[in-house]
Amino acid sequence: MNGHKFVVTVVFATTALLGSKCVAGTVDLEFRPSFQVVAPGETVNVGLYAVSADETDDVISVMDVVLTWDPAILSLQGVVNNGPYDWLSSGFPFNAIGGLNVDLDDGDATYTARSRFAPQPSAMATSNGLLVATIQFVAVAESSPTTLNIVESIGIATTKVVSDIPGFDVHGQLNGATFVVQSCVDSDPDDDGDIDLVDYAAFQQCFGVSSTDQFAIDCLCSFDSDNDGDIDLSDYDSFAVGITGP
Questions:
Q1: What is the pLDDT of residues 105-119, one digit of tens each?
Q2: Domain count for the chain
Q3: Which domain holds residue 160?
Q4: Dist. CA 36–CA 14, nearest whole Å
C-alpha cells in the first residue's frame, strides 16, 4: 500500500435546540473528540457525553439519543464501553421505541441508557461532561463531508434526557459530528518511502495543530497517531520511533 491510508476526520457540528440561552438543569449532548483520523476498515470511536449547562451536577435517570449517519460511509458496530458510570442498561436495544434499531445498517438508530435505581447512585451530568458511552463505527468508504447527527426525533423515536423528575425532559444542545474521508500517507507526507528530516520538518510545522487550524486535515492525516484531534508530544513519540532516514 506504499504507506497510504484513508482517513476520517471528525469535526463538531452544533445545533442549538433550546435557543442560545441555557437554563438551569439543562443537559447538553455532544460527541468527543471533535477531530479523529482513522484508516478505512479501521474503527471510529466517538464518545457520547452528557454535559451540565450550569455549574451543578444534574441527575440522569433515562436517556434516549436518536442518531443518523450515512451508512455508505460508516457502519455502526455498537457500544464499546460505558464510561465511569455503571448503567443499568446501555446500548442499542432491538425493541427501542420507534423501531429504529430493527436494522442498524440503515443509517439511523436510538441509543438508550438507564440509570440504576435507589439506593444506588444515579448517573450525574457534570459541567466537564459525563462520558455516557463510546460508540464505535467502521469507516467503509471515501466521501465528501458527511455527518453523524443527534436529532430531535424520527417518527415517535425522540431524543430525551429525563432527570429525577419522571417524564421531565431536560436535554439542551445536540452536537453532531462531520466526517471527511481522504487519502494520506502516515508519517511520510512527501510519500518517498521513508521517514526522514523532510518529514520531521513537516511534523514541526504541524506540531500544536488542532482541529480548528488552517492545515488541520493534512497534519492530522499524517501525524495524529492517537486520533485525539491534535498534534502533541504523544504523536511525536510515535513519529520518532518510525524515523528511518537522515
A1: 999 999 999 999 989
A2: 2
A3: 4-182
A4: 17
